[in-house]
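Bump. Still looking for RAS p21 protein activator 4 structure tokens.
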Amino acid sequence: MAKRSSLSIRIVEAKSLPAKDLSGSSDPYCIVKVDNEPIIRTATVWKTLCPFWGEEYQVHLPPTFHAVAFYVMDEDALSRDDVIGKVCLTKDTLASHPKGFSGWTHLIEVDPNEEVQGEIHLRLEVVPGTRASRLRCSVLEARDLAPKDRNGASDPFVRVHYNGRTRETSVVKKSCFPRWNETFEFDLEEGSAEALSVEAWDWDLVSRNDFLGKVVVNIQRLCSAQQEEGWFRLQPDQSKSRRGEGNLGSLQLEVRLRDDTVLPSVCYQPLVQLLCREVKPGNQGPGHLIPLIEETTSAECRQEVATTLLKLFLGQGLAKDFLDLLFRLELGRTSEANTLFRSNSLASKSMESFLKVAGMRYLHGILGPVIDRVFEEKKYVELDPSKVEVKDVGCSGLHRPQTEAEVLEQSARTLRAHVVALLSAICRSVRACPVVVRATFRQLFQRVQERFPSAQHQVVQNVGNMDTPVSRAKEAWMEPLQPTVRQGVVQLKDFIAKLVDIEEKEELDLQRALNLQVQPVKEGPLFIHRTKGKGPLASSSFKKLYFSLTTEALSFSKTSGSKKSAFIKLASIRAAEKVEEKSFGSSHVMQVIYADEAGRAQTVYLQCKCVNELNQWLSALRKVSTNNTSLLGSYHPGVFRGDKWSCCHQKDKTDLGCDKTHSRVTLQEWNDPLDHDLEAQLIYRHLLGVEAALREKHRLLSGETEADISPTGSGGEDTLAQLLCVLQNLQEAHSSILAGPPSREPHHLLELQT
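Sorry for the wait, here they are.
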């Protein structure tokens, strides 16, 4: 059994943002933080106060997370980026919206007293005395404090307030993971309602100290418990007056929290077997359950259900058969060939998900290099005469402005070259297309020919509606591209004909060859840290190499085409975590902790080019090593330099670590390894939500009362009765787990007061 939490995030757009640049505009982008940990950065939209992003993400998290915050920033090329405002959604807020939080919300000003993070380790005791009891507070350590200084760290100390007295710890310089191990005692006032306040501060020599967070402890509860020790999350200072929202603009978001308890695999086998029996080859006609699932699924969640079913059958090796069943259902209710897959049907949504799951890596491999070249060239392109920007051209001293005609002609040449390159890459990629995609298209092609055998329907749908009669440009200024587009239509039709021209024997041969290959989970250039020399004269640098991560190992080579050298075996990975920026004076650095052949812990430091690439690599490494038995629970976010760790200043190199690992924080990708139990749990949860509709359908089919439902009958009635029994058994299994013994996780009796 495992508890899973995930966030579906869609950052739509913003409006009425304030101007941060001298030009009277801004260059906004969004940073998404979960418990103050940056996990997502959107693209920058230049020169606008009403940016549209439309970016979607799926984030997997531990169920213990507290809040997700969206920071709208203004990008600056020569100085630090400006913070425009933020929106913060707590876990409780998201949980109160089962269908998801959606809509516009005002940006609020970022208040330093609220920008707190991290936890503090306290030991609290009520010590009996001869005259009166005493309150003993031991301040042990803290972790993941907010960096308040320019060096990427803080100089933290702690103030303890109780009954009019204040005590302070020593200051730990340049650390966000300080250790104090200091104890203070206070006279305990019996029956007093006064709380114990523990505040963390960043010490500054010449300016005011910065607030890092606080913990307020209920003393009456402590007196009942007598003692308590644990990690307490630092809270913002609610006593400070919140600044007004002002006119910082608004942000449109769609955020949905999903919590699932995933049972052991054996619990889901009856459900999976029942669904697989519906789509396995040999069944006479379409099954009964899949049409019922489509009938009882609302349009708003049909895409999610389609993706879940597709992944479930893909994991069972039945994706092609599942889609073939949907093809037959779709064709059975379609009278015009040109309207196929135009409706919001389960078939169209499943086909869309299938192409993403099975074809995303192929698409990136074929089109990625061409798109990269487009961005690298950075050529100005504009065909609309009303939007042309005339620029100077020529050598120094011989500048002359381009004419509008020159700009339009140059833009047309550039666009034609890009279109030709894209079409060429696609049309050469028949053999590179995944076998299961080609076989599925072949199956669809055959089914359509059976349903619409007339010659006029040989081409089911015109490629992107670009047949000769309708391919005329909607805008006159797009006319220069029409010859290239018409030629591309011919090429794409030929490509599709070759794509579906695959026999079953060739399909099997290609699948066997593919099974022998180790497919990369993620690959790309990274910078590896190298140290030269020893002692005080040692120097360090980062060298660029090409890395490839598979389900077997992390390897590297000088370039993408050169021979790869095995670097770290997958089974030896113990953690993949971020590194403090101050450690190397560089951002976006991660560390991979692994065991060498002798079993000794080793660490390699790798630098990424941006925060998104960093989180994608961390996600990939965590997902492929999730079943390793030697994963660490803690690590050092700094480096061991000289005779101590840069993060917590401990001098023992083998120290367990000063921060907890984040192995369960990952970003979902379309090419993620399939999680069979999770997909089964998701489809169970959906079916449970429409159980009433399924029972009503069963009563209509059988004429029986709800109490008479049994897994015996004929046809759809029999299958539906079996499904209802399976759902009932799964519901009982979930209930028994919820009613079982409590978790062994530490339970804190103290209540934080706000």
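The radius of gyration is 31 Å.

Edit: fixed formatting.
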